[in-house]
Write a structure and sequence with these properties.
single chain, 274 residues, alpha+beta, two-stranded antiparallel sheet, 10 helices
């Protein structure tokens, strides 16, 4: 949908809250140690009620974390992940360049997602034109354990990251969501072995997805490429074909992210054995 962009006035509704929210983030980021609400309120000369409201909003999107031990605040995982992405310039643009012709050829919805706390956030999406399809949007978030995207990223993130992720319960999103931690670990081991992740009606009814990680320096995942289709269009043969599609896309994007030989060797080898 297109619309004419009018010139914004210098001040408009919502600006003070945005400025204050970034002021809070600055205070937390520049502090030598975690800070409490009173310190932030005093430093910014803002009412405690306003600071409390903004901190809750920032916490709800993982921009800050409130420590249970002392109720002080640190920067949250979302900002760290966005920071990692800025070290990988052009990943979203590269995704669009690499994946658009592929998505058009198979006419299925493809996305690029990153891990943000316990969720995945989709930063880019190319939609199918078929009548029955996933309708996605940039900024869409889903619980990581219920998605092929999240599983692909977690599987290649290392045992420490997996252990920390599994410190909390795996919430049931729909009937097929994996909530047993032992089964989830086994699923991640399977994904590491074959190079790609799958999910069938684990996050959304009548939807199946296949995903592969995009690897950066040190072979660490910076995100994942996924293709999602209605269950009715996913035979075993179709799933194998889509796995090859996402593996090839992840190989090309990983090569762009890092020239390290082991990255290309790993992803390329996975594509050949899928």
């Amino acid at each position: 949908m297109q619309s004419d962009m009018a010139t914004e006035p210098e001040h408009f509704s919502g600006t003070p809250s945005i400025i204050s929210a970034f002021g809070i983030l600055d205070e937390i980021a520049l502090a030598d140690a975690p800070v409490n609400m009173a310190d932030i309120s005093r430093a910014l000369d803002l009412p405690k009620s306003s600071v409390h409201r903004l901190l809750r909003a920032l916490e709800s999107v993982d921009a800050v974390v409130r420590r249970s031990v002392d109720k002080k605040y640190t920067l949250g995982p979302k900002l760290r992940h966005y920071g990692d992405l800025t070290k990988q310039p052009g990943i979203v643009e590269e995704f669009m360049d690499v994946v658009t012709p592929v998505a058009n050829a198979i006419n299925e919805t493809m996305q690029f997602g990153v891990l943000t706390g316990r969720d995945v956030t989709f930063l880019a999406s190319i939609s199918s034109t078929q009548p029955v399809r996933l309708v996605s949007r940039v900024g869409r978030r889903l619980p990581a354990h219920a998605t092929a995207t999240g599983k692909a990223i977690l599987a290649f993130s290392g045992e420490r990251t997996i252990d920390e992720f599994l410190e909390n319960d795996l919430l049931q999103v729909v009937t097929n969501t994996i909530t047993d931690k032992s089964l989830f670990r086994a699923e991640l081991a399977l994904i590491r072995g074959r190079g790609f992740a799958t999910e069938s009606e684990e996050s959304t009814l009548n939807l199946s997805c296949v995903a592969a990680p995009v690897l950066g320096p040190g072979s660490k995942p910076v995100g994942a490429v996924t293709v999602c289709v209605p269950v009715s269009r996913l035979s075993a043969e179709r799933q194998a074909a889509l796995a090859s599609v996402v593996l090839e896309a992840s190989y090309r994007l990983s090569a762009g992210e890092s020239s390290r030989p082991e990255v290309a060797a790993f992803v390329g080898g996975a594509a050949q054995t899928s």
